[in-house]
Amino acid sequence: MRVFVTGATGLIGSAVVAELLGHGHSVVALARSEASAAAAEKAGAEPVRGALADLDVIREAAGKADGVIHLAFANAFSSAEALASAVAEETAALKVQAEVLVGSDRPLVTVSGTPYAPGRASTEADPVATDGPVGGRGRTVAEVLEFADRGVRTSAVRLPRTVHNNGEGGFAGLLTTIARQTGVSGYPGDGTQRWPAVHALDAAVLFRLALEKAEPGTAWHAVADEGVRVVDTAAVIGRRLGLPVESVPEETYGPLGSLFATDQPSSSAHTQQALGWAPEHPGLLADLVNIRA
Q: Pfam families per the record (predicted)?
């Protein structure tokens, strides 16, 4: 299968590209810079120059592909305004990809976050949030999944709050970055809130499985650790960086503060049973020991 991948050179995207190429697919990668194009080519993909805002480039590449995996999202968490702009940009790009595939029965795999279910681990049957700081992404994914009724084999891989590899990535990666900046390995509240997590290499396998065999309009959970306490995550970061571990205000985390403070475990039992997905790489706490001191 010739697969068009956006976000192909990021932490998750590079793992997805390697997974696809390792299983006989070819990859066309959206590359927004010469450096990204070179990285994609080195990995074995065919680069196509363009950014997420270049809708004509995206439309053409998606239309020529046998399937699409959408991963790109601007790293814009500094303010609510920047985050809203990133969501709008992604929405336009996703809708272009869905529209060009109408009536083709070709797969379009997109990404969202695992939902919040008060008092329990969320499941694939729970809806994603459509309000809050990233609610716009939830609304867009819901619209894209409805293209299943228009002849597109849409599916969504829901990623947990931390997708990690060698101690980097996700919310845990943001904790590490802020710890380096502030000199404190912090956590909001009492730190007992739990975040789900998955290794990027395991998540990549699920993206491939969804591309190859997910039914139209379905959602899947890329969750290995159902819920790791944030205080435990901060403790490992503190040990690796030689910093004190303390509770800090939610405001430390900007527009994501309310998410950081929420207990949000998640399950992937249905995904593992239905698609035969079996995470096998190190869990979050074990992987965080790879953080550079």
A: Epimerase (PF01370)
Residue 39: which of 13, 10, 9 has the closest Cα? 9
Beta bridge partners of 69: 5, 109
Q: 251 Cβ partners below 8 Å, 6+ apart?
A: 257
- Residue 127 burial (10 A CB sphere; 0-12, 13-18, 19+): exposed
Q: What CATH architecture is 2-162+197-225? A: 3-Layer(aba) Sandwich (3.40)
CA 214 to chain centre: 18
Tell me if residue 168 falls in helix, strand or coil: strand
Joined tokens for residue 39: 């990285």
Instruction: For residues 31-45, give the mean pLDDT.
Output: 95
pTM of the predicted structure, to 2 decimals? 0.94
User: What is the torsional sign of CA 122, 124, 127, 130?
Assistant: positive
Tell me the domain boundaries of the chain: 2-162+197-225, 164-196+227-266+282-290
Mean pLDDT of the chain: 94
| Nearest one of 225, 280, 254, 274 to 77, comparing CA atoms | 254
Q: Which helix (H) or strand (E) holds 46?
A: strand 46-49
Cα 73 from chain centre: 9
Q: Name every residue whose Cβ is closer than 8 Å to that of residue 153 and which is 6 or more positions away in sequence.
A: 105, 106, 107, 108, 214, 215, 216
In contact, 147 and 176? CB cutoff 8 Å: no
Residues 223-265 have pLDDT tens digits of 999 999 999 999 999 999 999 999 999 988 887 788 889 999 9
